[in-house]
Amino acid sequence: MAEKKKKKKSESAVEKKRLVSVIDIGSTAIRLVVVEIRKKSHWTTLDRAVQPLSLGRDVFLRGSLSPESMREAILILERFQELLRGWAIPPQDVRVIATAAIREARNRDIFLDRVQVRTGFQINVVAGIEENHLTYLAVQHALNELRPQFSRSSAMILEVGGGTSELMLLSRGRMAGSHNLGIGTLRVEQQVLGSSGTTTDNGRVEEFLREHIRVTREVLNAEMRLDKIRFFVAVGGDARIAAEQVGTREGELFSVISRDAFVTFLDNVRSRSVEECVRDLKLTWTEAEGLFPALLILHLFMESTAADQLIVPDVSIREGVLLDFTIDPGHGIRKEFVRQVSGAALALGRKYRFDEAHATAVTHLALQLFDQLKDEHGLTDHARLLLEVAALTHDIGYFVRADGHHKHGQYIVENSEIFGLSRTDLSIVGNVIRFHRGATPSPGRSSLGALRWSQRMMVLKLAAILRVADALDRGHLQRIRNITIQKEESGLMIQCESLGDISTERHGLTIKGKMFEEIYGYQVVLL
Amino acid sequence: MSAPERFINRDLSWVEFNRRVLSEAQNPAVPLLERLKFLSIVGSNFDEFFMVRVASIKRQALAKQRSTCPTGMSPRSQLKGIHTAVARITEGIYQTLLDEVLPGIAEVGLERVTPDRWSEDQRAFVGRFFRENVEPLLTPVRVDVHQDEPPSVRNLQLHAAFLLERETGGESQDPQDPPGPHLALVQVPRSIKRTLFLPTERAGSVAFTFLEQVVLEQAYQLFPGYRVVEQCLFSLTRDADMSVDEERDEDFLEAMEQILEHRDLSRPVRMVINRRSTKLQKVLAKLFGLESQEVYACPDPVDLAPLMEIVGIDGFEALRDETWRPVPSPQIDPDAPVWQSLRGGEVMLHYPYESFEPVLRLLREAAEDPDTLAIKITLYRTSGNSPVVRALVRAAEAGKQVTVLVEVKARFDEERNIDVAQKLERAGAIVIHGVARLKVHSKALLITRREPTGIRRYVYLSTGNFNDRTATLYGDIGVLSSREELAGEVGLFFNSVTGYSVIPGLRHLVLAPHSLRGRLLELIKREARRAQEAGRGLIIAKMNSLADPVVIEALYEANNAGVKILLNVRGICMLIPGVTGMSEHIRVVSVIDRYLEHARIFHFENGGSGETWLASADWMPRNLDRRVELMFPIEDDEIARTVRRLLDIWFADTVKAHQLGPDQTWKRVSAKKGRNVLRAQEEIHRLTVERGAIQEPENRQLFSVRRTGEAKKR
User: pLDDT, tens digit, for every residue of A399-430?
Assistant: First the structure.
């Protein structure tokens, strides 16, 4: 008996060390990583695999995946599945993501279905702006040692992919802008050649990229002065190849390449054919093919900054995915991430000249309500983040017109990029803004559009909280700061520290509290 | 004036290696049965050499190809050189065998009795044996010497040839059938042991003869109506080279099987024949299209392979080396699972001085262990009914993921390996039949366990195969390790050879053909730079063969930069040492002793922070360019020191060492006056026993008590 107990105990100890795998179906390769989570958000990489496959070439040139590529991709995924069996990882701990190539393929649903049937893998097709978020998480993880320097100056993070490139601008450690740019090593071929030719001509590629990036740089410069940027972070396989060749390892998870060495290396690659790169640099064909455009894109952006070196972290979107689903909310990286998201929302608000004092007051109140109503709404921390963004931006529709500003706000948010939020997230936030005033919708309402049932319920729960919070600063004078909630039979009693007259707020609550009552079943009373 | 020679011809150097082996057979200090073993080894070495190398040069010669040899020797003159040298060595073999070894063992009662000396009893015994056991297996084939197709005489199978004439008075019914002489061939059966022990009256002694002699003696019975005019024994050596269509992925095993059949009928490159009939010799040479230099006329026994059966006979201990029992590694706790002994880091195993048992035990334990998730291994040469394969089969049947890379192209082990592959597949293992266009020669094992502290991996990398039999004969070094970074890289190596991934960037391991050549050259060049900067450089390398012209040129350059280079090369060495302005700082030594020197160790002094590597690869083009090989660093300081000491011992040998001179000849090394005599293998054995004895179980004050339930806790 005692023995049995002991065994059980050791088994549970075994279970604590969780094995997790991420498979990333990219534009130029399918990659796999297996890690063991040792402590929260600390992991050891146990296994890696890469199979080059140019899905991006199909999609960016022809619009859809060719039957051969699909077969090849499935074969690779079947091999990966075999590899994962050797690690005995349960299916729920395997994340399979796909980026631009699959995202843009006309026949992506067929592909997703076939993969599911043949391998059981459920592919999560990552939206463009979500890639930014994942990349950012990974970079932060790798460059943790550099955080103090980052918080003092400006930085650009750039990941060149096959289909799209992720670019983030940080000002004193705060997210000043994040973009999913439509340039990539494979797409550039299509852009330069159309669908007519297949020969790659470095000269034409260079001409095209120079012009394209010049325009992009001007747009970015409006967001933040690029010439003040001291840190240039280059993410991705091509940057890592450069780092292996001419970089020096400076941290456990990153290398550094001096600007001069990088330029020399770029010249070196420019003067070589793809075959020569394969031979001399010992690369796979796919790696060699994309190397020149990737390095050139990095170079063209770096040129506009004051950075004297490239920092190349040893991470990729896969580590971002790992962080995303393994770190717990209290962890530093998550907190930092939440700060970046709210920073981005704030930046959006400022862009549309919102009443910042009101917005932050409502946010503060809404989050207090959210936290104290945990048992009532049962929502996750991610919902809390969406509430925060919605509260910060709930009035930005005023920029268009006061009348119907909730609808304008929804439109603006859904058509903006907020760092860290997926398209679905933005749609939820947009709907919360949409329903922070006006008639209470039913969950079946068509304007809740493409959202799933659980997401619609989230919209309603969050909108109800936002309405109450908005009412508590109806006068836009921030007379109510901190609140405490007591649940009583007669309703929800809100006790507050107030400064001055709060009759406007009291009145507001009687109007805006209705939805709350419908959803949570409590009447709200301001004491 | 011609440019000074920079290389020794590769194949002549291989023949020279066999001369060194022969010199052990001729060495009166070596016990007689060991001498017999060396004779048999030289014989089978040549068999393989003719099948592969001579066949290939002959093909070049026939195709009138230009020389591919860096010495510039033409294929023709290489063949001539080879045949001249092999003929001389063959003479030496028979002289030693007939004048020294066979008379020597006969003196102590192990006697070969030739048919002319068979007693009545023995004759009767042989007659009965022939009728009951041999005759049913014989299929005489009559050969028309004028036909186009030569008869299908299988590779390396001993045959008897007969010239027959019709008995006088016997009239043929068939006018087409001339009276003779006729040629008939009979294959000596493969399924019967070649050594036949004869009854003898002398107590305590053993008399034997060879099966082929029985066939010859009794052959008259095979051809009723005919008279045997002349008879002889012969065997053909055929071209064993093969190229399989690597594109045929789906039925690769089948393609391999077809090639193996083909090997039995490909072009003959040598005939060994006994000197019984000059007439038959001529007929057969013509029949098989052999040049005169390709015909080796020898005394009996023409086939040296069965001498191994005599070597393996029970008793006669006085005729053998004293037994050196492999010592159990003192670093492996015999009472706990092997992986427990590895948690502290790394354990080196030096075979055959130390036992291979820990590796077998590790595999067996992993197969039975519920926490083991996966086992990955490469198999190149494995023994018949190998315990390695048995453990893998058990593990696969127990539901573990077992991935086995079986190199079905491992020459002369193809059939066995195909069999192993199928056996493993049936058990549910993932079997990879090698890599297209490359042979996987690396020796690696990776075991993944789920332990309470998380995933733990155990790796084993070696210079030798996973073969329990050769582990008692070949000098190899293996390293067992639980070092995380190393294990991770071995995992990546397996991912690339199992088709999960492209070849990864590796920091510890060096992989051929991807990066091994480049890294070696880099290491040699670095040493040259060190020598130029600090005036001191040292490379010590031990390998089976040194035959890569590019590496050799790099060594010459290092020599000229002042690097001292010590090379312990057992077999082929194309480098010429001791030549002023090219190689005066290079010393080449070859140790030929009871164990086959097989380890590949490369040490670079690197200005004081020495680096020592072990590898599965020799410095030969085939290893660096056409095989998947692994070179791995010794990271444990203690092991590195041990290996460094071993290297010194191999160069200090004054008993079994030969040194290559600037004149390209090998001379036996002897102890300088007043210096100690040292035999490297004996010294290593002594040191290993000494080291093991310190921790012998006798010295322990505590019994290792087994109690229920405790094993699980471990």
Answer: 888 888 888 999 898 888 888 888 788 889 99
Q: Please name which of A463, A107, A49, A431 lies closest in space to residue B493, comparing C-alpha atoms.
A: A49
Distance from CA of A405 to the nearest CA of B (A): 54
Window from B194-203, B251-260, B475-484, B507-516 with minimum mean pLDDT: B251-260
Yes or no, beta carbons of A7 and B374 under 8 Å apart: no
* Tokens describing residue A355: 């009443």
Q: Which residue among B452, B500, B504 sits closest to A14, beta carbon to beta carbon?
A: B452
The rounded distance, in Å, linking the Cα atoms of A221 and A517 is: 48
Residues A114 and A149 in one domain: no
Pair A467, A474: CB distance under 8 Å: no
Tokens read off for A503: 């009759």
Which sign, positive or negative, has the C-alpha torsion A98, A100, A103, A108? negative
Nearest to B709 among A3, A47, A83 (CB): A3
Rounded distance, CA B72 to CA A230, Å? 61
What integer pLDDT is reported at residue A500 of this predicted model? 79
Of residues B25 and B63, which shows the higher confidence score?
B25
In CATH, what number is assigned to the domain containing residue A224? 3.30.420.150
pLDDT in tens, B353-383: 999 999 999 999 999 999 999 999 998 877 6
Predicted confidence (pLDDT) per residue in A203-256, tens digit:
888 888 888 898 888 888 877 888 889 999 999 889 999 999 999 998 888 999
CATH class of B512-695: alpha beta
Contacts B500 to A, Cβ<8 Å: 32, 49, 51, 79-80, 82-83
Question: Do the domains spanning B338-507 and B512-695 agree at the CATH topology level?
Answer: yes
| Domain residue limits, chain B | 10-166+179-319, 338-507, 512-695
CB contact under 8 A, A49 and B495: yes
Residues contacting B554, CB < 8 A, separation 6+: B520, B521, B524, B525
Cβ of A86 and B453 within 8 Å?
no
Contact B516, B510 (CB under 8 A): yes
Q: Which of A126, A159, A187 is the last residue of a domain?
A: A126
Q: Are strands B627-633 and B439-440 parallel, antiparallel or unpaired?
A: parallel
> Is B441 in the active site?
yes
**Does the domain spanning B10-166+179-319 belong to CATH 3.30.1840.10?**
yes
Of B83, B159, B433, B441, the active-site residue reads B441
